[in-house]
User: What shape does this take?
Amino acid sequence: ETFEPMAGEVADHAPLADYQAAFDLMAAGNAGAAQAFVALASRYPQDPLVHFHNQRAQKGERGATIVMAEK
Assistant: This one.
């Protein structure tokens, strides 16, 4: 596992509680995660983590495991 420290809330990034709710849906394999990340991405287009998970969800990826296929 890899973790990145957070410096607190950032103005153009999704609030942690909103991101966590969407991520929990994805981790549970819930199809509603895709819509949750679409909504976050539309409100916070500058948030790179939301963008990353939105792309994953739109590709149909589910779950918290991220497979890095390219080097």
